[in-house]
Design a protein that fits this description.
CATH class: Alpha Beta
Distance between the termini: 22 Å
CATH topology: HIT family, subunit A
Radius of gyration: 15 Å
InterPro entries: HIT-like (IPR011146), HIT-like_sf (IPR036265)
Number of domains: 1
GO molecular function: catalytic activity
Number of strands: 5
Largest sheet: 5 strands, antiparallel
Organism: Variovorax paradoxus
Number of helices: 3
Helix content: 25-40%
Structural class: alpha+beta
Protein name: DeoR faimly transcriptional regulator
CATH superfamily: HIT-like
């Protein structure tokens, strides 16, 4: 599988890079109202999860698990949302989103209409915890990729 011209995840990082490895990267996505929105992006262009061989599928899901666990440990969210849609960007990536009962869309999905404004102070509280969560993500992801 090679890079696909015009694919935003082949052409660039797709957000602020938290971890860059040989096979995947983790980025923090700038999504208004969702301070802890991450993507695990497979490095090579692959439209579907089944395009990966068995070992790479395991590595990819272990990376998703690491991101989820670090968010749970550091942020104590109400829920973690995982999604691999790929309808808008057909390059294999997983959304890992820490959700809170106070967020603008909860309990609806992040792509639904907002139900309320996100409280600025609570968003700032979560943002203040992200450096520690991201440092732990990077440490643990590096161990995964040897």
């Amino acid at each position: 599988m090679t890079a696909q011209h015009g694919c935003p995840f082949c052409d660039g990082p797709g957000g602020r890079v938290v971890f860059e490895g040989a096979k995947l990267r983790v980025i923090h996505a700038e999504e208004a109202g969702f301070p802890a929105f991450y993507r695990v992006i497979w490095r090579e262009h692959a439209p579907e999860f089944s395009d990966l061989d068995a070992a790479d599928r395991v590595l990819c899901m272990e990376a998703v698990t690491v991101v989820e666990q670090c968010l749970r440990d550091q942020l104590m969210p109400t829920k973690i949302n995982l999604a691999a849609l790929g309808n808008m960007v057909p390059h294999l990536h997983w959304h890992v989103i820490a959700r809170f009962e106070w967020d603008s869309h909860f309990p609806a999905p992040f792509w639904a209409a907002a139900q309320r404004p996100a409280p600025v102070d609570r968003v700032a509280d979560v943002q203040a915890l992200l450096p520690k969560a991201e440092a732990e993500m990077a440490r643990r992801l590096a161990l995964l990729q040897g």
